[in-house]
Design a protein that fits this description.
two-stranded antiparallel sheet; Pemi-like Protein 1, Chain: D; alpha+beta
């Protein structure tokens, strides 16, 4: 089933504002990245950009002062590596 969504207007600078309903559907917020994917039939799809888990390898270096990182510390390191998304 195809669902009609709100339209967006391309600015003279090539910028596009993603309508709130679409942002909510995609689960994205300010600062998040969005991928544009072209299908074999030429249709263009948008989806939230997600980092490949392999790109995170080595980000959580061992620290001398503790044996483990908290989840919050891990999230901070990952967020920094992903460009603050």
């Amino acid at each position: 089933m195809v669902r009609s969504m709100p339209q967006a207007k391309l600015s003279s600078k090539g910028q596009l504002v993603v309508p709130k309903e679409v942002r909510e559907l995609l689960g994205v917020q300010e600062g998040d990245r969005i991928d544009f994917v072209v299908g074999d039939d030429g249709r263009v799809f948008i989806r939230p950009a997600v980092a490949d888990i392999r790109d995170l390898r080595g980000l959580l270096a061992r620290r001398e002062d503790t044996t483990s990182l908290t989840v919050a510390e891990m999230n901070d390191v990952i967020r920094s590596a992903a460009g603050g998304r």
